[in-house]
Write a structure and sequence with these properties.
Elements lengths: L12 H16 L6 H8 L5 H6 L2 H21 L8 H15 L1 H7 L10 H19 L7 H23 L10 H10 L8
């Protein structure tokens, strides 16, 4: 007779806790996260989340790092030869935020994270490099401080639009956030269509 499996045994306990955390953030917000509640949700011992993540900040840092990796992958999917590459990267940014709202809710809250975590730093660097590649693809690509300002303008537009979409603060323009975002970008000097 084989022993019955214990409730705390998971094939990938770390992934189970992360999934439970993403669900909890979606349902109740980042502030409501507790390691004890996540253990209950994931069906693991109350010590398991702390064993894998150390503390709440460690868990949120893992979510943020995963989010930045997913974002970098989404931005990298825009081919180099795409017309209006930076605009299309902004569209991917918005689609990422709308498709991964729990990750997005954590990624830009440095006070909740272990900022020096090597995985987080590397993931942020990958997403920033993707954005820089988009700026470099502009006709008459800026350099130095002007490139940083252009990147900041592009990021601000995509991030702001995504944040407003997620908070349902925008008036209903249509059912296609990507099309609306493209229109916004095309009206911005230096970022949109020539």
């Amino acid at each position: 007779m084989t022993p019955s499996p214990r409730a705390y045994h998971h094939g990938d306990l770390r992934r189970s806790v992360l999934a439970a955390a993403l669900d909890a953030i979606r349902d109740d917000g980042v502030a409501a996260i507790s390691l004890r509640d996540l253990a209950r949700r994931a069906g693991v011992s109350h010590a398991a989340p702390a064993h894998h993540f150390g503390d709440k900040a460690g868990l949120l840092t893992a979510i943020a790092a995963e989010g930045f990796d997913l974002l970098a992958a989404a931005l990298d999917e825009v081919p180099d030869d795409t017309a209006h590459r930076l605009r299309e990267m902004g569209v991917r940014y918005v689609e990422f935020a709308l498709g991964h709202p729990s990750h997005f809710a954590v990624m830009f809250q440095p006070g909740l994270l272990h900022e020096a975590d090597p995985e987080l730093v590397a993931a942020r660097d990958r997403s920033a490099a993707a954005l820089r590649a988009g700026v470099d693809s502009l006709p008459d690509s800026p350099d130095g401080a002007e490139a940083r300002r252009t990147g900041l303008a592009a990021w601000s537009l995509a991030h702001g639009f995504a944040t407003l979409q997620l908070s349902t603060s925008l008036p209903t323009l249509d059912d296609d956030p990507a099309a609306t975002f493209r229109t916004l970008v095309d009206r911005q000097p230096g970022l949109g269509a020539p």
